[in-house]
Amino acid sequence: MARSITQALLAAGIMSAVALTTLAAQGPTPKYKRDVPARLLKQAKVAEADAAKTASAKYPTGHIQAVELENEDGRLIYSYEIKVPGKSGIEEINVNAKTGAVVNTEHETPSSEAREGRAEKGVKKPAK
Q1: Phi and psi torsions of 79, nearest 5°
Q2: Which of 26, 30, 36, 55 has CB 3.0 to 4.6 Å from 80, enough for a Cys bridge?
Q3: Which long-range contacts (CB under 8 A, 24 or more apart) does 100-104 make?
Q4: Count of H helices and E strands in the chain?
Q5: Which residue from 29, 30, 32, 7 is spatially nearest to 20, judged by alpha carbons?
Q6: How do residues 54-79 score in pLDDT, each as one tens digit?
Q7: pLDDT digit string, tens, across residues 13-36
Q8: Residue 77 burial (CB < 10 Å; 0-12/13-18/19+)?
Q9: Are 85 and 62 in contact (CB under 8 A)?
Q10: Coil/strand/helix, residue 79
């Protein structure tokens, strides 16, 4: 049935063959928060799905909560946030988007996550 819908969309000119090929290559849409700008994705040589497998291998019982594709210190990286059951905070795994290698891992406690969130938004911690 999906094939007939796809064929109908192609016939109607709603989707191009290039778009369908790109979608098929990416696989199913992940069920976690994604911040993957198209302009950066064009520069990546490693598919997001492959980088996710690499990051997940570090914490096999964990679940990816979010990914961000970003330039950090001159490197294009996928930054994955992985929640590990029974552990507070999150594990951040950075995967090089050009080589597929893990370049950094870091445990973020709930308080360090809050600090990082405020810093990204430019909000200072309230005075006591």
Answers
A1: -110, 110
A2: 55
A3: 100/46, 100/50, 100/51, 100/54, 102/54, 102/55, 102/58, 103/75, 103/77
A4: 5, 5
A5: 7
A6: 999 999 999 999 999 999 999 999 99
A7: 544 343 333 344 455 667 899 999
A8: buried
A9: yes
A10: strand
